[in-house]
Amino acid sequence: MNAPLYSIPGSAQAAATPAPTAVADGGARTVNEVLAQSQVEAVMDELERDLVGLVPVKQRIRDISALLVIDKLRRNLGLEAQAPSLHMSFTGNPGTGKTTVAMRMAQILHRLGYVRKGHLVAVTRDDLVGQYIGHTAPKTKEVLKKAMGGVLFIDEAYYLYRPENERDYGQEAIEILLQVMENQRDDLVVILAGYKDRMDTFFKSNPGMSSRIAHHLDFPDYAGDELLQIGERMLDGMHYRFGTGAREVFAEYLGLRLKQPHFANARSVRNALDRARLRQASRLFADRDRALSKDDLSTIEVADLRASRVFAAAS
Amino acid sequence: MMTNPTGRLTQGQFSFLPDLTDAEIALQIDYGLKKGYAWSVEYTDDPHPRNTYWEMFGNPMFDLKDAAGVMLELNACRKTFPNHYIRMMAFDSTRNTESITMSFIVNRPAKEPGFGLSRQEGKGRSMHYTVHSYATDTPEGERYGS
């Protein structure tokens, strides 16, 4: 009684249309054809251009891209293989560009057709773990549903596991994550990020998590000249520039700041520049009758940098 | 019943077509997501056409980008209520629309007994007609052999 007695013109019963994926790629045969179709080169070049340093990270991203391109070529020739697991962990000190790279990763994976939508959902412990019994699972699942088809970026992932509190709900979130990471790796990529030492303890106490993550990327600290380069790019992005001699003073500043505790790489550079902008503003503000040119307004002078307490502490 | 020769419940979109496959359902969901609709899953075991508000399975899903998330919820609902009617609803939150814009059945009981026409004699030999679902002769939760 339930089988329809009518037939739809042009529809073959039971043979429900499987989505034609392999054919739709246009049957590329060479690496260049795949690259041309996916425009992944553009993102890679952008990555190379915009991000200073981070050589091992860039190398790993190139490797992953290569694997995905070759996989696509294999698929075009009918060599089926299970989709590679691309869950990653980004470890490194604060301000080494983990979030920035994760953002790019989503783009790259989307261009290569590994994730369908290519959006990034950035969450922390608060978004995953609930406050009372039965609150965690729906919360985590909701986040996972939002991240489907894209990349789920869990910042400071080590907070998920709190060994000192045995009734902590973080464990529940981890278990749901693991299940989805295993069963739906076509649907989303999970990237865990955090500081190196804490992530190591996190993985040690959650071996299941560690083994499901294929790529452990370590973000190295920036060297002094790389930081200077980063600083210049930041200024450029904000339409400021160094005045005469200010660049050298900033290099000197970075050298001193590096030796102090709590140095957060690019983030510290940004903060230092923000403070220099403050000082520049109050310097210009003090002289009320002066007509300010475009040059005046966009130049960070030596004095703006020299006033930092880093120099005062050093002398 | 000339209008519905199969005896299947026909409510919402696509209900005269053969059941949609999961791939086809995912395509419909993607279409809705592209339009910015929020999907939700609802179920019931009372197929009466005037039973407008079905039970919600979980919350409506806002801010989703991909059909996989909605399918996750649908499959969970199918697992919990394999012998119920389940439908997908797309809510359009655009100002002045703010209502359901898509709705289609994605799961039905194995056996749908259909409806009977019941007659009631009114004043002056006038007749009042209504439909009655045979399924609702048994209590809620025991219909369709579940």
**Helix residue percentage of chain B:** 10-25%
Calculate Rg of chain B over CA atoms. Answer: 17 Å
Task: Count the beta strands of chain A.
Answer: 7
Whole-number mean pLDDT of chain B:
91
The tally of helices of chain B reads 2
Binned strand content of chain B: 25-35%
Number of helices of chain A: 15
Give the uncertain stretches of chain B in residue-range form.
none
The SSE order of chain B reads HEEHEEEE
Structural class of chain A: alpha/beta
β-strand percent of chain A reads 5-15%
Largest interface by residue count? A-B, 29 and 26 residues
Number of strands of chain B: 6
The Rg value of chain A, from CA coordinates, equals: 25 Å
The biggest beta sheet of chain B is recorded as: 4 strands, antiparallel
Separation, N- and C-terminal Cα atoms of chain B: 27 Å
Largest sheet of chain A: 5 strands, parallel
What's the short story on this structure?
The complex is a heterodimer of chains A (315) and B (146). By secondary structure, chain A is α/β, with parallel strands linked by helices. Chain A has helices at 31-38, 40-50, 55-76, 98-111, 125-128, 136-147, 170-183, 196-205, 207-212, 224-237, 246-259, 265-286, 294-298, 302-306, 309-314, and strands at residues 88-92, 120-123, 151-154, 189-194, 215-219, 241-242, 299-300.
Key traits:
heterodimer, A: 315 residues, alpha/beta, two-stranded parallel sheet, 15 helices, B: 146 residues, alpha+beta, four-stranded antiparallel beta sheet, two-stranded antiparallel sheet, 6 strands
Textual characterization of the structure:
The complex is a heterodimer of chains A (315) and B (146). Chain A is of the alpha/beta class. Chain A has helices spanning 31-38, 40-50, 55-76, 98-111, 125-128, 136-147, 170-183, 196-205, 207-212, 224-237, 246-259, 265-286, 294-298, 302-306, 309-314; strands at residues 88-92, 120-123, 151-154, 189-194, 215-219, 241-242, 299-300. In chain A, α6 packs parallel to α7 (170-183). The longest helix of chain A is centred in the first third of the chain and has 22 residues, at 55-76. Chain A is globular. By secondary structure, chain B is of the alpha+beta class. Chain B contains 2 helices and 6 strands; from the N terminus they run αββαββββ. In chain B, α1 (22-34) packs across α2. The two termini of chain B are 27 Å apart. The A-B interface holds A 1-6, 8, 11, 13, 16-19, 116-117, 119, 138, 141-142, 144-150, 184, 187-188 and B 5-8, 17-18, 21, 23-24, 58-59, 61, 63-70, 72-73, 108, 110-112.
